[in-house]
């Protein structure tokens, strides 16, 4: 049976309406509910008439239509491209309905709408029951002899227009009960505990949304022992419940439910069929009918800016007032609901939503004469009633019959319907601009002057006018159910889009998909971080949550440290009646995180210390041990070996090394001596880690005593971070199984190359594909097709990407957008099409480094390739693939800049290392200052060694400068803190009594004294910066090249003062040298303060004294205490630089006195930086020679 809108042409050629617009449809009555599996369309025979896209609607009653959506997002179907070809679509989920409606959206522009339609399916049979919401219900009781099974299943379908009601109630032993209740259109699984007073229910799960839409919804409850799977439509949630919960009876639809149930099954038993035959196990209560009687309620959907509904109002307003009512449903906070003119008064009435509240305004000549507001949270997706009434001079607006709020006013002018009413918007032809947002949502039960509005007459153009509306359906969609926000992101929505709030989740992106944390300590190190606590996310975008660990980066390896609840040495003494001592270790991370972190690491270890006295562990190496420990995944497995031994050996480290105190045993403790013994060592087998529990036996004897300590779990190396492959030609590639990223996918990797283009990754489907490529030397391209046409995202770099350095690529595609990020450049994004992304359907192998066509392959290295948080093992696959080599050396070109302060980058197989041998600093990046505080009487003397022996005469004195060499310059730097002035900071001398001295004079100014000719007095370079003896950190750099000297003083402001003790640092080549009188007096005073990072050319004497005193030419007198006193607390220093040329001015220059007549000085003070420029007339090169004989 066919129904047409307006007059139509129906002949052997097909159907074509007289008017081709979007308000036409073809409706088919199949006579009974049918399972529809496919539809096929064809244009009108022998014509230019066909539709190019269309919508499909289904209904059981011919009212309350529901739009069919492919993949929950795609709303339209592509149609025909000519009049003859047949285009068939198999429905992903069969539609069960009696009525089908096809609505053309677009058609051949050279013709008009033309259609031949065929549907495919099969008959559908069902048992249906209807409840009136009062006392009606159905009870099913178990047979007394019924054997219970470990698996029970209840399945049903329901439809209702009410948003609340109980579908199922099950009771168990001890008053336990489980209920499945509809609440605000969602299904809630509620658990209650029995007792004398009923407890508040605990919500176990919440699924579904908008379930009061008067359409069928499928529910399945499946119990497997103590687990329950709740499925609503296509979405499932798993919860845990008591195993005996259903031991008594389930009560299906325990009153209060108003609606219909279909095909109610318990373990395959059709309960409705049994109820029809008066089965004793099934009892019906109240008004129950075996058919689905449902009310007819016609809704209308407002989609956007062009939507409005116009109804005549003047004829209806016989009372001289206003009485308008409606129900609305929306996600938007704002939108126009109703407007009409007041011609006699010259005003306009506006009823609208703003900030999810109902508001009314009356405007006249641009002024607001009256304003009311009521209600709140009207954008929650629930049906809300709205009423506007004006009678007897009293104006009222009310929400939900007044329960949601109301507001009143008594205007001085009459408010009556004297013109047409406009709902949701206003026609552009009316010449009045809508000052409010358009309404997007649904309306129903419209009344004007207490008369129901027949929206079917509106649809048939017999009443009023409308534009861009869908009548007889509510097209609301809950985009947050199920939530597309991952990892706990909070979902919010409007009518057209949803938004994910990712704050506090540890993830980012449009759907909170990508982790904001690195996957290992190794990755943090290569971002330039130093030791500290970090969150690591071992599987990136995967399901495992981030975990807080300590990353120790002070050693050659980068260690991840995971603590547990007891790392202290614990003593165990005999207790009466106690033969064993049992202790459990709880770790700071969850089990899944712990297992993944161990698996990802190259090496893990844990210290196990065991001290004993008269306590045996393994008296018989082949028998049952007295003590053992549990380690490994889960609760752990029994381990009988101890630190330093092999798994399963029942031995200790001494047994493996053959040095136990008793050669007859394999553990020291088994000697059973009264003296303390120890069996300690490292546990290094990852399969046995971490240590979960420790069981200590043989502690009941008198005199027995033991002590144990289990250290934290330590792991280093990241197998994923350095997993790499090298592709040496364009035709080489690696292949992996098909990538599955249907709705959400992220891909990340690092690459380096000298080629200008090449495909990193490609996976194909029948039509779909996904590809990432280097499209040019400065551009990376991410492209894919998920059924709605190719989409491309590009990122351009300002620097070449084929520079043989590592570059990081991160691509993500989800239902909201596609994004591409390159290194630290801003991400490029492309929004998803209006109907959202389809499922990405791929079926070929995943190609890495090449393509299926063996063209445009990538030449270079790819490293740390991860798809949805899973690392692909490139190295293992490369070992068996021609043209591809595992691994990829050469990391210093990318990471060498992390080595600071003259540190040298050294290549390693997996990564790099900073060699700080030539630096005055230490640490993983040569960034940690080496500082010391000297107590009274402490001194350090450093003797410069010859690089090779020039003279073997024993009388030759050592020197820092060689007789055949001329030292044309030096670089000296150090940092200091002091409250003392005057003070000598540094003194360097040669055999010929030439020296350089750095001091603070009595005026708190810095002085540099050079004496490069023993026959002349020292020359003094003095800074104008005062108050250097203020306890703050200052850094001094002295650079001399021939006759030019520069001195820079950097003061770190806001640095806290440090209490220092008297100290003296003397660096010389001959301790017998005599100091100048002034310097001798200063040396006798000593130095009170801190010295740090002392550097002379390539030598770091203070570092040598503190870190390598046994292998360096240093003499230390008194205690030398290392400190962090040289660590600056401020990153905003100011600097003062002096540039001098040394003078040979004739005449006497007093010792310690500044040069006056010998220099010409130009100075300026610029932002705290003081510059001096000094020159001299002439100087002979030999004046600067440090020599030795």
Automatic annotation (TrEMBL):
<keyword id="KW-0472">Membrane</keyword>
<keyword id="KW-0732">Signal</keyword>
<feature type="domain" description="Laminin G">
    <location>
        <begin position="932"/>
        <end position="1125"/>
    </location>
</feature>
<dbReference type="InterPro" id="IPR000421">
    <property type="entry name" value="FA58C"/>
</dbReference>
<feature type="domain" description="Laminin G">
    <location>
        <begin position="723"/>
        <end position="888"/>
    </location>
</feature>
<feature type="domain" description="F5/8 type C">
    <location>
        <begin position="1"/>
        <end position="122"/>
    </location>
</feature>
<keyword id="KW-0245">EGF-like domain</keyword>
<feature type="domain" description="EGF-like">
    <location>
        <begin position="476"/>
        <end position="513"/>
    </location>
</feature>
<dbReference type="InterPro" id="IPR050372">
    <property type="entry name" value="Neurexin-related_CASP"/>
</dbReference>
<keyword id="KW-0812">Transmembrane</keyword>
<feature type="domain" description="Laminin G">
    <location>
        <begin position="128"/>
        <end position="292"/>
    </location>
</feature>
<dbReference type="Pfam" id="PF00754">
    <property type="entry name" value="F5_F8_type_C"/>
</dbReference>
<dbReference type="InterPro" id="IPR001791">
    <property type="entry name" value="Laminin_G"/>
</dbReference>
<feature type="domain" description="Laminin G">
    <location>
        <begin position="298"/>
        <end position="474"/>
    </location>
</feature>
<dbReference type="InterPro" id="IPR002181">
    <property type="entry name" value="Fibrinogen_a/b/g_C_dom"/>
</dbReference>
<keyword id="KW-1015">Disulfide bond</keyword>
<keyword id="KW-0677">Repeat</keyword>
<feature type="disulfide bond">
    <location>
        <begin position="861"/>
        <end position="888"/>
    </location>
</feature>
<dbReference type="InterPro" id="IPR008979">
    <property type="entry name" value="Galactose-bd-like_sf"/>
</dbReference>
<dbReference type="InterPro" id="IPR036056">
    <property type="entry name" value="Fibrinogen-like_C"/>
</dbReference>
<feature type="domain" description="EGF-like">
    <location>
        <begin position="889"/>
        <end position="927"/>
    </location>
</feature>
<keyword id="KW-1133">Transmembrane helix</keyword>
<dbReference type="InterPro" id="IPR000742">
    <property type="entry name" value="EGF"/>
</dbReference>
<dbReference type="GO" id="GO:0016020">
    <property type="term" value="C:membrane"/>
</dbReference>
<dbReference type="Pfam" id="PF02210">
    <property type="entry name" value="Laminin_G_2"/>
</dbReference>
<dbReference type="InterPro" id="IPR013320">
    <property type="entry name" value="ConA-like_dom_sf"/>
</dbReference>
<protein>
    <submittedName>
        <fullName>Contactin associated protein like 3</fullName>
    </submittedName>
</protein>
<feature type="domain" description="Fibrinogen C-terminal">
    <location>
        <begin position="512"/>
        <end position="564"/>
    </location>
</feature>
<comment type="similarity">
    <text>Belongs to the neurexin family.</text>
</comment>
């Amino acid at each position: 049976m066919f129904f047409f809108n307006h007059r139509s042409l129906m002949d052997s050629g097909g159907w074509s309406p007289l008017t081709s617009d979007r308000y036409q449809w073809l409706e088919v009555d199949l006579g009974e509910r049918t399972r529809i599996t496919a539809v096929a369309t064809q244009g009108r025979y022998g014509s230019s008439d066909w539709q190019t896209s269309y919508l499909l609607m289904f209904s059981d009653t011919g009212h309350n239509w529901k739009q069919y959506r492919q993949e929950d997002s795609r709303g339209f179907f592509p149609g025909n491209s000519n009049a003859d070809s047949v285009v068939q679509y198999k429905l992903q989920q069969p539609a069960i309905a009696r009525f089908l409606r096809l609505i053309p959206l677009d058609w051949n522009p050279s013709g008009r709408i033309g259609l031949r339609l065929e549907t495919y399916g099969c008959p559908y049979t069902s048992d249906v029951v209807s409840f009136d919401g009062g006392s009606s219900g159905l009870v099913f009781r178990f047979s007394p002899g019924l054997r219970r099974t470990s698996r029970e299943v209840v399945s049903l379908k329901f439809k209702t227009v009410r948003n609340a009601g109980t579908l199922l109630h099950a009771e168990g032993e001890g008053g336990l009960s489980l209920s499945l209740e509809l609440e605000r259109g969602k299904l809630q699984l509620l658990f209650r505990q029995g007792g004398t007073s009923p407890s508040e229910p605990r919500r176990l799960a919440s699924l579904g949304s908008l379930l009061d839409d008067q359409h069928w919804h499928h529910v399945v409850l499946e119990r497997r022992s103590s687990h329950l799977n709740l499925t609503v439509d296509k979405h499932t949630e798993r919860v845990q419940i008591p195993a005996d919960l259903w031991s008594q009876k389930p009560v299906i639809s325990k009153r209060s439910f108003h609606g219909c149930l279909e095909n109610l099954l318990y373990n395959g038993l059709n309960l409705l069929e049994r109820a029809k035959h008066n089965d004793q196990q099934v009892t019906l209560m109240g008004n129950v009918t075996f058919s689905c009687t449902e009310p007819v309620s016609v809704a209308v959907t407002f989609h956007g800016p062009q939507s409005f509904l116009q109804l005549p109002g003047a004829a209806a307003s016989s009372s001289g007032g206003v009485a308008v009512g409606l129900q609305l449903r929306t996600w938007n906070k704002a939108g126009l609901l109703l407007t009409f003119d007041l011609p006699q008064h010259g005003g306009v009435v506006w009823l609208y939503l703003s900030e999810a509240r109902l508001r009314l305004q009356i405007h006249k000549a641009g002024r607001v004469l009256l304003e009311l507001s009521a209600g709140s949270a009207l954008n929650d997706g629930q049906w809300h009633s709205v009423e506007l009434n004006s009678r007897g001079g009293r104006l009222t607006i009310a929400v939900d019959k007044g329960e949601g709020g109301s507001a009143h006013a008594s205007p001085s002018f009459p408010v009556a319907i004297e013109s047409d009413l406009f709902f949701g918007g206003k026609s552009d032809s009316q010449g009045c601009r809508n000052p409010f947002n358009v309404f997007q949502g649904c309306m129903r039960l419209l009344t004007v002057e207490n008369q129901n509005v027949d929206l079917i007459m509106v649809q048939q153009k017999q009443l009023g006018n409308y534009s861009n509306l869908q009548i007889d359906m509510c097209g609301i969609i809950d985009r947050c159910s199920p939530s597309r926000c991952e990892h706990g992101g909070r979902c919010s929505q409007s009518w057209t889009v949803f938004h994910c709030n990712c704050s506090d989740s540890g993830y980012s992106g449009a759907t909170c998909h990508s982790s904001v944390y690195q996957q290992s300590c190794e990755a943090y190190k290569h971002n330039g971080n130093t030791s500290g606590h970090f969150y690591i996310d071992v599987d990136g975008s995967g399901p495992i949550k981030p975990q807080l660990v300590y990353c120790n980066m002070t050693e050659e390896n980068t260690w991840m440290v995971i603590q547990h609840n007891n790392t202290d040495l614990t003593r165990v003494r005999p207790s009466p009646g106690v033969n064993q001592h049992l202790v459990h270790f709880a770790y700071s991370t969850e089990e899944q995180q712990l297992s993944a972190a161990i698996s990802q690491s190259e090496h893990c270890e844990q210290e196990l210390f065991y001290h004993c006295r008269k306590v045996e562990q393994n008296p018989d190496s082949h028998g049952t041990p007295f003590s053992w420990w549990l380690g490994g995944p889960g609760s752990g497995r029994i381990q009988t070996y101890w630190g330093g031994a092999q798994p399963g050996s029942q031995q200790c480290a001494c047994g493996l090394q053959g040095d136990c105190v008793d050669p007859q045993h394999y553990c020291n403790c088994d000697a059973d001596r009264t003296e303390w013994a120890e069996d300690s060592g490292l546990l290094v087998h990852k399969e046995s880690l971490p240590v979960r529990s420790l069981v200590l036996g043989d502690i009941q004897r008198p005199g027995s005593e033991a002590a144990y300590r289990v250290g934290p779990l330590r792991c280093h190396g990241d197998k994923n971070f350095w997993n790499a492959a090298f592709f040496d030609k364009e035709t080489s590639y690696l292949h992996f199984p098909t990538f599955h990223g249907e709705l959400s996918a992220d891909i990340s990797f690092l690459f380096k190359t000298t080629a200008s283009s090449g495909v990193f990754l490609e996976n194909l489907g029948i039509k779909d594909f996904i590809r990432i490529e280097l499209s040019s030397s400065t551009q990376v391209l991410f492209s894919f097709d998920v059924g709605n046409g190719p989409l491309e995202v590009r990122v351009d770099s300002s620097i070449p990407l084929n520079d043989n350095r590592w570059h990081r690529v991160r691509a993500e595609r989800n239902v909201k957008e596609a994004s591409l990020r390159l290194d630290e450049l801003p991400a490029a994004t492309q929004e998803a099409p209006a109907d959202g992304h389809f499922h990405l359907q791929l079926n070929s192998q995943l190609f890495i480094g090449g393509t299926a066509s063996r063209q445009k392959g990538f030449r270079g290295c790819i490293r740390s390739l991860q798809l949805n948080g899973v690392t692909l093992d490139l190295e293992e696959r490369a070992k068996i693939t021609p043209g591809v080599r595992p691994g990829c050396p050469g990391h210093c070109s990318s990471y060498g800049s992390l080595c600071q302060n003259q540190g040298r980058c050294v290549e390693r197989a997996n990564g790099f290392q900073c060699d700080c041998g030539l630096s005055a600093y230490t640490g993983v990046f040569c960034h940690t200052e080496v500082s010391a505080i000297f107590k009274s009487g402490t001194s350090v003397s450093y003797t410069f060694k010859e690089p090779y022996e020039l003279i073997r005469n024993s009388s030759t004195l050592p020197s820092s400068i060689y007789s055949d060499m001329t030292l044309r310059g030096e670089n000296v730097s150090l940092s200091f803190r002091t409250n003392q002035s005057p003070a000598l900071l540094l003194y360097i001398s040669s055999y010929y009594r030439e020296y350089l001295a750095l001091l603070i004079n009595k005026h708190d100014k810095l002085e540099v004294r050079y004496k490069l000719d023993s026959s002349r007095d020292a020359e003094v370079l003095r800074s104008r910066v005062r108050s250097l003896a203020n306890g703050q950190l200052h850094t001094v750099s002295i650079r001399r090249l021939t006759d030019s000297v520069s001195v820079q003083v950097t003061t770190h402001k806001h640095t806290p003062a440090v209490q220092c003790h008297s100290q003296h640092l003397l660096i010389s080549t001959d301790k017998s040298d005599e100091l100048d009188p002034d310097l001798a007096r200063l040396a006798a005073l000593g130095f009170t303060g801190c010295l740090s990072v002392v550097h002379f050319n390539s030598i770091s004497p203070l570092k040598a004294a503190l870190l390598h005193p046994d292998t360096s030419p240093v003499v230390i007198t008194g205690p030398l205490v290392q400190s962090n006193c040289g660590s600056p607390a401020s990153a905003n220093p100011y600097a003062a630089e002096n540039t001098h040329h040394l003078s040979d001015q004739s005449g006497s220059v007093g010792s310690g006195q500044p040069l006056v007549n010998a220099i010409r000085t130009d100075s300026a003070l610029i932002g705290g930086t003081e510059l001096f420029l000094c020159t001299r007339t002439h100087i002979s090169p030999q004046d600067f020679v440090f020599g030795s004989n």
